[in-house]
Specification:
- The structure is a single chain.
- This protein is an alpha/beta fold.
- The chain contains eight helices and 17 strands.
- The strands form four sheets. Strands 7-11-6-1-4-5-12 form a seven-stranded parallel beta sheet, with helices on both faces. It has a five-stranded parallel beta sheet with strand order 14-13-15-16-17. Strands 8-9-10 form a three-stranded antiparallel beta sheet.
- The longest helix is centred in the first third of the chain and has 17 residues, at 19-35.
- The termini are far apart.
- It binds flavin-adenine dinucleotide.
- The site of flavin-adenine dinucleotide has 28 residues, from helix 6, helix 7, strand 16 and helix 8.
Length: 335
Amino acid sequence: MSNVRILVIVEYAEQQLKTSTVSTIEAARQLKEHIGGAIDIVALVSGKNTDTITKAVAALPDISHVIQADHPALQDNLAEPLAAVVCSICTAEAYQAILAPATTFGKNILPRIAAMLDVAQISDVIKIMDAKTFVRPTYAGNIVTTVRSLDTIQVITVRSTHFTKNIDTKSREKFAEIVAWPTDKLPNFSHLPVASFIERKETKTERPDLATASIVVAGGRGLGSPEQFSALMTALADKLGAAIGASRAAVDAGFAPNDAQVGQTGKVVAPKLYIAVGISGAIQHLAGMKDSKVVVAINKDPSAPIFQVSNYGLVGDLFEILPNFLNKLEQFSKK
Ligand code: FAD
């Protein structure tokens, strides 16, 4: 390995790499170009029974080494043991930066690592200007800030939608080298009041993943009831092969599950097409979808703020517009 390294913390679930990991590696590649010189991008796979995922990471371009930290205590990737692993890696060797996706996974771990290393975290990076200068949104995306880190090591979460890349795993002739992390280095947590894993409840769906779907249809309070939300939004999503999102008001009213929320305190999406139905377009909602390529809004209020970020706006009653639209899609699909 070279003397200077960038560490990427790998996010995965059920033996599948998350696309957020691919984006984080792309951000690491851009950072490496800015730093210049001989720099290795090292990926950390932590967990239990990690052979499959480690091999999948070793096949990705731009990675020079994969550190495999396989230990029962890392099984659920709780912040405490994972942060301890990362800190032991980064204090033993020279790392210039630690990157993780700005997902719940990354947001759970990186602040702890930053605190343990006594450096500032740079959150939700959307652009890398140079080796130590980064662009990130603040105030729900109302302000875009350029920040320069004065720390010796940068701890960075990456907004995945800004570092998308199609990966060609066949482009590698030789896979990255896999290095086993000496798990006897893992601190003993039994004497500490740390969190323990109880249960994971994940929504299983046949639909595309909301965070990475190329089409998202999102419903708001205007849909009026859980039944109407389900009937109309499901029909629309089925026709378009889309993921279903929701405003916070729709989630709070029980129209849609929590993990469907788009916005400042929900998911950040940037699909090719975003259809907002009965959503007013509050600033906190826009923070999660305004980078969508094409936005279509259906709202009966012509002054609704959602129209300010829409490419196409349909002013009218969604209960008339949507069934008509679904009929048209039906006719179109039969042609
Ligand atoms: P409303 O604002 O009530 O809008 C409903 C819209 O439906 C209206 O524009 C109305 O004209 C239209 N409508 C009603 N009936 C019809 C009809 N029949 N046909 C057509 N149109 C119709 N919100 C988020 O979405 N995501 C977040 O992550 C988020 N985070 C927040 C964080 C904080 C700290 C705070 C304070 C707020 C947050 N919010 C968030 C809430 C946000 O401020 C809004 O309250 C919320 O987005 C409103 O949701 P809505 O547009 O569905 O509802």
